[in-house]
Write a structure and sequence with these properties.
The protein is α+β, with helices and mostly antiparallel strands and 196 residues long. It has 5 helices and 7 strands. Helix 4 packs antiparallel against helix 5.
Length: 196
């Protein structure tokens, strides 16, 4: 994605933020600053119901945003926190697949001579459309791989359980299997005794 943006828009500052529904946050899958990957501490923000940044605005409204000049003034007027640094022009577009907003694609300039325009925003939208399909396919593939792994584990459990009549072996299998399936650090099995 970055190569497309860099080639088509001649941009060196770019990010892809993906929304993680389970954790309710945007996680920056890719952050490039001056053509180099940014430090990992810059790559995650919690999503709240309050719109704080231009990226939040794009994510929560599902609408593209172009701030072609006076980024600080425009962000302040929109009650947004302006991007840090010497940003002279900023744009962001949602990554949409079907009805779902997968994340946000953003680009900015720190060159006083360069300003994004409507044409740049249209091009970023085109890139976002194709990237959305690729990201949705990657998410689907990942989920299918996880389900396949779980099914494999379940089949192994059934085979182990059906191959033994020993209560101790059954308990060992249940404990180790529960731990593997739930990815838990500890598992306990409580047995009901008719004597008590």
């Amino acid at each position: 994605i970055y190569q497309q943006v860099r080639q088509i828009l001649a941009v060196e500052n770019f990010s892809v933020a993906l929304y993680e529904e389970e954790r309710a946050r945007l996680e920056y899958a890719l952050v490039m600053r001056k053509g180099q990957p940014a430090p990992s501490h810059d790559q995650e923000t919690i999503v709240s119901r309050y719109i704080k940044t231009p990226t939040d605005y794009v994510h929560q409204t599902g609408k593209p945003l172009l701030i072609s000049q006076q980024v600080q003034v425009t962000a302040d007027a929109m009650h947004l926190q302006a991007p840090g640094g010497d940003v002279t022009s900023w744009m962001g577009v949602p990554l949409i697949f079907g009805e779902r907003i997968l994340g946000v694609l953003t680009a900015y300039c720190d060159d006083q001579e360069r300003r994004f325009g409507d044409k740049d925003l249209r091009l970023l939208n085109i890139i976002a459309d194709s990237a959305s399909v690729a990201i949705a396919n990657a998410i689907l593939y990942s989920r299918q791989a996880e389900q396949l792994e779980l099914m494999t584990i379940l089949n192994q459990i059934v085979a182990m359980l059906s191959g033994t009549l020993s209560a101790e072996n059954v308990l060992d299998t249940v404990i180790s299997s529960a731990s593997a399936l739930s990815q838990a650090n500890a598992v306990a099995v409580y047995l009901h005794s008719e004597d008590q």
